[in-house]
Each structure stands twice: as C-alpha cells, then as structure tokens.
Automatic annotation (TrEMBL):
<keyword id="KW-0472">Membrane</keyword>
<feature type="domain" description="DUF1232">
    <location>
        <begin position="64"/>
        <end position="98"/>
    </location>
</feature>
<feature type="transmembrane region" description="Helical">
    <location>
        <begin position="7"/>
        <end position="28"/>
    </location>
</feature>
<keyword id="KW-1133">Transmembrane helix</keyword>
<keyword id="KW-0812">Transmembrane</keyword>
<dbReference type="InterPro" id="IPR010652">
    <property type="entry name" value="DUF1232"/>
</dbReference>
<dbReference type="Pfam" id="PF06803">
    <property type="entry name" value="DUF1232"/>
</dbReference>
<dbReference type="GO" id="GO:0012505">
    <property type="term" value="C:endomembrane system"/>
</dbReference>
<protein>
    <recommendedName>
        <fullName>DUF1232 domain-containing protein</fullName>
    </recommendedName>
</protein>
C-alpha cells in the first residue's frame, strides 16, 4: 500500500474517531433541547466553519493563518498526543480547536463565527457552550 493511501485512511479514521468523541462529549454534557440530529452534525459543521473562516478575506490575516494551520493540523495523521491513547489522544485536538476558536472570537468577533456557521441554531448553541464562547 502506498504512503498516500495510508495517510488518506489515517485521516479518515481520525475524523471519524474525533466525530465519535465529540458526539460522546456532547451527549455527556446533555445540552438542553438539542436533538441527536444536531449532535451528529456538529463535527461536519465545525469543519465547514473552520474552512469558511479561513477563506474569509475580511478576517485579519493572523486569524486566517491560524485557522489554516489548525485545518492542516487536523488533516495530518500524527498529533501531539497519539490518537490511540484513550481520551487524551483526542483531547489535544479538542483543546487546540477550542483555543483557536476563542482566539478567532477575540480577534474577529462572535458575529463572524455566527455568520459562517453552516449548521442549526441548536448546533451553534452547543458549539458555543462546549468551547466556552458563550461567556
């Protein structure tokens, strides 16, 4: 098997596992009035949000660079903490996403994040609660 197939399979597996971890975290947090459909859409919506924010020319360059680096980090099959380590393996990804989103809100405003959010209002409420952006 060539290296790019291995990388592609690794990225696909990592995205699927991150999605499952986020879903479990979401269900454990028991957000009010959020249906399972909104929970299932959280990770794909989050990835589309990051891509849209990174491509927005109205945002400051530093914000777009950090978002681009975040997307690259999430796409690379290796992490700071390997994903095979239970809980901690995916915690680093969640922490890095949270830090970059908080930085984005501080620099560009919550309105920019809301404007680019592709999901439902319930999904956005869950995202802001899980990342601490609602404070």
């Amino acid at each position: 098997m060539t290296w790019w197939w291995q990388a592609l399979i690794s990225v696909g597996a990592a995205v699927l596992l991150i999605w499952i971890v986020l879903l479990i975290a979401l269900l454990a947090a028991k957000p009010g009035k959020v249906q399972l459909a909104a929970a299932l859409r959280l990770l794909p919506d989050l990835l589309r949000l990051l891509r849209r924010l990174a491509a927005d020319p109205t945002l400051p360059r530093g914000v777009r660079i950090r978002l681009g680096l975040l997307l690259a980090y999430l796409a690379v099959p290796f992490d700071l903490i390997p994903d095979f380590i239970p809980v901690l393996g995916y915690a680093d990804d969640a922490i890095i996403v949270t830090v970059v989103l908080r930085f984005t809100v501080r620099r560009a405003g919550l309105d920019a994040v809301r404007r680019h959010w592709p999901g439902t209002d319930d999904g956005f409420a869950v995202l802001t609660r899980l990342t601490g952006l609602d404070r």
